[in-house]
UniProtKB/TrEMBL annotation:
It catalyses: Thiol-dependent hydrolysis of ester, thioester, amide, peptide and isopeptide bonds formed by the C-terminal Gly of ubiquitin (a 76-residue protein attached to proteins as an intracellular targeting signal). It comes from Polypterus senegalus. One of its GO terms (cellular component) is nucleus. GO terms for molecular function: cysteine-type deubiquitinase activity; K48-linked deubiquitinase activity. Hydrolase that can remove 'Lys-48'-linked conjugated ubiquitin from proteins. Keywords: Apoptosis, Hydrolase, Nucleus, Protease, Thiol protease, Ubl conjugation pathway. Belongs to the MINDY deubiquitinase family. FAM188 subfamily. The gene is Mindy3. This is Ubiquitin carboxyl-terminal hydrolase MINDY. Residues 117-136 are annotated as: Disordered.
Length: 449
């Protein structure tokens, strides 16, 4: 393998040291976009690993079904409707990833008649060759064992210049996306549309592959998740860039369309910035240690602009990076200035005495909000329906991939806690809504793994 195919493979999988290991890991990703028989709009994941691509596609797909579709019964979907929404979703993700919106889009598809390593490069086909390529799959694809080398020997790059052309070709390739390796073909299409060098320039450690070469997890690389969610393959989840020992650490620069929350934040390993935590649509990818699932609702008030009290909570918490729920009283003046509150020294000292009557030297978040932003309504209903998606059969009841429905309560800091449970999914969601309570329609809480 040489040339563009080699560069692409090394970016995704790393440099090969053990071919048998690579084939084992690679096979976890050899699946298409397949809908569940039990839930017409839910994608199935066959093995651990490709959730890093399937979950973002599922999130965008849900957005297009819930908010771009006039069909009131969003859980019912005909085959033609599913075809249209899946292809539209794939185009949307590719458009997001396109480095320069005036540049072309690249689609990686099967090449005709390439069955040996002698041809192991990504050849170019003219834009007009957008025929149904499932009829052109080479005989090598019929073999039971379809490994790493064979795959990279049988792919080609097709370039289209406009969004209109992209939509047409992606729709024509519907069966290719659904068949074996459709997930990988789409991943490679996104990467080449973004540009290998552009991705390397955004990744913090360019030697780290997008997919773990030992276990096959895309979850371990935040670069891949960020690329699919935001179009930028940055390594971090905070807002903006940060400097550390003279090195620029890239983060998220704009409000994301889909959100991201992680259980790791509840364990204080990281902190998600507001651009991912507060997206444009009420759909969040949830990250556990090894897997990605999707939490979503139809309630748009969940992503409405911040109320003054929500802004105050966010700013207060920037001065409380360890999420202790309090700050030293020496920082009260800084917080008040950041919120454009009266911050004259005499007034600040008066507030210190009022908010810390016992002289402990700390200011608690609850009393601070109650003092300056009392009884402010966020606009979120007292309760609303929520849904959770997990693409792995074994993580679903009776091994049927279906959305788990529930009711969400978002309480105020002064409200008594219902204390429904203390599960990983609840701890993950509490990183955005500290006083959230969940009542699921099933006997058990949905799994993050």
């Amino acid at each position: 393998m040489s040339g563009p195919a080699k560069d692409l493979a090394e970016l995704v999988w790393g440099k090969r040291t053990d071919s048998s290991l690579t084939d084992t890991v690679f096979c976890r990703w050899t699946q298409g976009f397949v809908f569940s028989e039990s839930e017409p709009t839910a994608l199935e994941q066959f093995e651990g690993g490709p959730c890093a691509l399937i979950a973002p596609v599922q999130a965008f797909l849900l957005k297009n079904i819930l908010f771009n579709n006039e069909n009131s019964n969003w859980r019912e979907c005909s085959e033609e409707e599913r075809k249209a929404v899946l292809c539209y979703t794939l185009c949307e993700i590719m458009e997001t990833a396109c480095f320069n919106k005036s540049e072309s889009f690249c689609l990686v598809t099967w090449a005709k008649g390439k069955t040996s390593e002698d041809n192991a490069s990504i050849s170019e086909t003219p834009p007009e060759s957008s025929q149904r390529l499932e009829d052109e799959q080479p005989s090598a694809l019929a073999a039971e064992e379809f490994g790493f080398e064979q795959f990279h020997s049988n792919i080609q790059k097709q370039t289209v210049k406009t969004i209109g052309e992209l939509k047409k070709v992606v729709l024509d390739l519907y069966e290719t996306w659904r068949n074996k390796c459709g997930v990988l073909l789409f991943l490679y299409s996104v990467i080449l549309t973004k540009g290998i060098e552009n991705i390397k320039n955004e990744i913090e450690d360019s030697t780290e592959p997008l997919i773990d070469p030992v276990y096959g997890h895309g979850r371990q690389s935040q670069n891949l998740i960020n690329l699919l969610l935001t179009g930028h393959a940055v390594s971090n989840i905070w807002d903006g860039d940060r400097e550390c020992s003279g090195m620029k650490l890239r983060g998220i620069h704009n409000q994301a369309t889909m959100g991201f929350l992680t259980l790791m934040e509840s364990l204080r390993y990281c902190k998600v910035g507001s651009f991912l935590k507060s997206p444009k649509f009420p759909i969040w990818i949830l990250g556990s240690e090894t897997h990605l699932t999707v939490f979503f609702a139809k309630e748009m008030t969940l992503v409405a602009p911040e109320s003054p009290s929500e802004q105050a909570r966010r700013i207060f918490q920037t001065y409380d990076p360890e999420d202790n729920g309090f700050i030293p009283d020496t920082l009260l003046e800084d917080v008040m200035k950041a919120l454009d509150l009266v911050s004259e020294p005499e007034y600040v000292n008066l507030m210190k005495s009022k908010l810390d009557p016992e002289g402990l030297g700390i200011i608690l978040l609850g009393p601070f909000l109650q003092e300056f932003f009392p009884e402010q309504d966020s606009g979120i209903p007292d309760s609303f329906p929520v849904y959770h998606y997990n693409g792995l059969k074994q993580s679903n009841f009776n091994e049927k991939v279906m959305y788990v429905t529930g009711t969400c309560l978002v309480l105020g800091f002064e409200d008594p806690m219902v204390r429904t449970d203390d599960t990983p999914i609840k701890r993950c969601l509490q990183t955005k809504w500290p006083y959230i309570e969940l009542l699921w329609s099933t006997d058990r809480s949905p799994s993050l793994n």
